[in-house]
Design a protein that fits this description.
The protein has 416 residues and is of the alpha+beta class. 14% of the residues lie in helices and 31% in strands. Strands 10, 11, 12, 13 and 14 form a five-stranded antiparallel β-sheet that branches. Strands 1-23-22-21 form a four-stranded antiparallel β-sheet, with no helix packed on it. It has a four-stranded antiparallel β-sheet with strand order 2-3-4-5, with no helix packed on it. The longest helix is centred in the C-terminal third of the chain and has 21 residues. The protein starts with 5 loop residues before the first helix and ends with a helix. 39% of the residues are buried.
C-alpha cells in the first residue's frame, strides 16, 4: 500500500474521532469455522455463485438466496439460476434448510422449509452474474441487479422483487435495454449498455448510495477497468447516471484474477460512509478500498495494511463473491464469502509430481463467514488493556486512547 498522504491521514483521524472512534471500538474480522458456521449446511452448488441475505417470509430473520449460472443440485432442487435456503433458526442463531424448487403436488419439491413451501424465484431465467442487492424500487425490499459473465454480451439485468403482505412472492425481470416505465435503468445513457461495458465482457456491479442523496449509485468493473457512476437525477422514473472521478476511478485492473470479480459496498470501518471490497474470479487475494472521503463525497483508496488490521487480508481459492449481513443479531454485519474452486483428489499422494488433468480435479464450494466482536466487548477489552499499560508505567498511552474514544463518543451523542 502506498503511504498515506498527510491529508488522507488527517481525514482518517477526523473520521474516527467524529464517529466515536468506531474503528477502535470493534475487533477485527475473524473467520468462523466448523459447526459454528451455519452456512456449512448449505450444499447448493453451481458455477459463478453469489448470494443475497434477505427476509423472504417476513419472520424477522434472514434467509439465503443463491444465484448461479447453472446449478449442480439434483431434482427437486434443480432450478438453474436461483436456490433458496430458509432460515429455520432465528435472527441470532441461523440454521438453514433448502426450499424445493417444484411444488408439484406429488410429494416432490417441498424441501425442509418451515414457512416457505416453494422457491418463489423458480422458472426465472437469468444470464447475469454476479448479483448485487439494493432496495431499488423503494418499497423496503431488496431488489437484484446483475453483472455479466465472461463471454456473455448481454446487458446487465434488473430484477424487481415482488411481495405480498411482506412475504416475497416472485420477481419481475427487466433487461438492461428493455423499454418500460417500470425499469429505472432504461434510458440512463450508456452506463448499463453492452457497448459501454466493453460489450458486457465480464462485468460486475456494486450498488449503494455513495453521495447520501437517497439514490443508488454504481461501481462497475468491466474488463480491466473499475468506474463509479453517480445517480444524479430521476426523470420519468428512470435513473440518470454520470461518471464520477477521483484519484482512484477509473481504476485499471492489472490482473485476470479480478476480471469480472464480484464486489460489494459496505461501511466496513464504521466511519459512516461506504467502502468497497472486491472478491476474485480465480484464486487470489481479495481487495479492500476504504472510503477516505465522506458519506456524501466518496474518495476511495486501496489499502493493504489496514486490510490486515481489519482481518480482511483474505486469500481465496477460486471464484469468490462477498456480501454483508447481520445473521447473529448483534447489530454488526458479518462478511459472507461464497467460493467455488478446484481441488486435487484426496487420494493423490502429497509428494506426487505428476501433472494434474482437468478430469482429476474436483469442483467444490464453500461459504465462509467472517465475524467481529461487538463494541461493548471491545470496550471492556480496551479498558483492560489501558489498566495493563498503567501498571507498566505507560499511563499516557492508555489515557490517549481513552480520551480519543471518549471524545468521539461525546460527539456521537451530541449528533444524535
Amino acid at each position: 500500500m502506498k503511504a498515506l498522504h498527510r491529508k488522507r491521514l488527517a481525514q482518517a483521524i477526523a473520521a474516527a474521532t467524529a464517529l466515536g472512534g468506531a474503528t477502535l471500538l470493534h475487533a477485527a474480522f475473524e473467520e468462523v469455522t466448523g459447526s459454528k458456521n451455519p452456512f456449512k449446511a448449505v450444499t447448493s452448488g453451481g458455477d459463478y455463485p453469489s448470494i443475497v441475505m434477505m427476509d423472504l417470509d417476513n419472520d424477522g430473520d434472514l434467509d439465503l438466496v443463491m444465484f448461479h449460472r447453472y446449478t449442480d443440485d439434483n431434482y427437486p432442487f434443480s432450478d438453474d439460476f436461483f436456490s433458496v435456503w430458509e432460515n429455520i433458526g432465528d435472527a441470532e442463531e441461523a440454521s438453514f434448510a433448502q426450499v424445493g424448487d417444484y411444488n408439484d403436488g406429488y410429494g416432490y419439491g417441498y424441501g425442509d422449509g418451515v414457512n416457505i413451501d416453494e422457491n418463489p424465484f423458480v422458472y426465472t431465467t437469468n444470464y447475469g452474474h454476479p448479483v448485487t442487492a439494493f432496495d431499488i424500487s423503494g418499497d423496503g425490499t431488496l431488489d437484484f441487479l446483475t453483472g455479466t459473465l465472461e463471454g456473455d454480451y448481454a446487458a446487465p439485468r434488473y430484477f424487481r422483487v415482488e411481495t405480498e403482505g411482506g412475504v416475497v412472492t416472485g420477481i419481475t425481470r427487466f433487461d438492461g435495454g428493455e423499454s418500460s416505465v417500470d425499469n429505472p435503468f432504461y434510458g440512463t445513457g450508456q452506463t448499463l449498455t453492452p457497448s459501454a461495458l466493453n460489450y458486457g465482457y465480464a462485468s460486475s456491479i456494486a450498488i449503494g448510495d455513495l453521495t447520501n442523496n437517497g439514490r443508488p449509485d454504481l461501481i462497475v468493473a468491466d474488463a480491466y477497468t473499475v468506474r463509479a457512476f453517480e445517480n444524479v437525477n430521476t426523470v420519468d422514473g428512470r435513473f440518470q447516471f454520470t461518471a464520477m472521478t477521483s484519484d482512484l476511478f477509473p481504476l485499471e485492473l492489472d490482473s485476470p484474477i479480478y476480471l469480472g470479480a464480484p464486489m460489494v459496498l459496505h461501511d466496513i470501518d464504521g466511519d459512516g460512509d461506504l467502502d468497497l471490497i472486491m472478491g476474485t474470479s480465480r484464486a487470489g487475494n481479495m481487495r479492500l478500498f476504504l472510503n477516505k472521503g465522506s458519506a456524501a463525497t466518496p474518495d476511495f483508496e486501496e489499502v493493504t495494511d489496514e486490510a490486515g488490521e481489519l482481518g480482511l487480508d483474505i486469500t481465496t481459492r477460486g471464484w469468490a463473491a462477498p456480501t454483508f449481513a447481520d445473521i447473529t443479531g448483534n447489530g454488526i454485519a458479518e462478511l459472507i464469502v461464497v467460493e467455488r474452486f478446484e481441488t486435487a483428489p484426496e487420494d493423490r499422494p502429497k509428494d506426487s509430481s505428476a501433472p494434474l488433468f482437468i478430469v482429476d480435479l474436483a469442483i467444490e464450494q464453500e461459504i465462509r463467514l467472517f465475524a467481529r466482536t461487538p463494541a461493548e466487548e471491545e470496550e471492556e477489552e480496551s479498558e483492560t488493556t489501558a489498566e495493563e499499560k498503567k501498571k507498566k508505567g505507560k499511563l499516557f498511552g492508555g489515557l490517549g486512547t481513552g480520551l480519543l474514544a471518549s471524545f468521539g463518543l461525546l460527539l456521537l451523542r451530541r449528533r444524535r
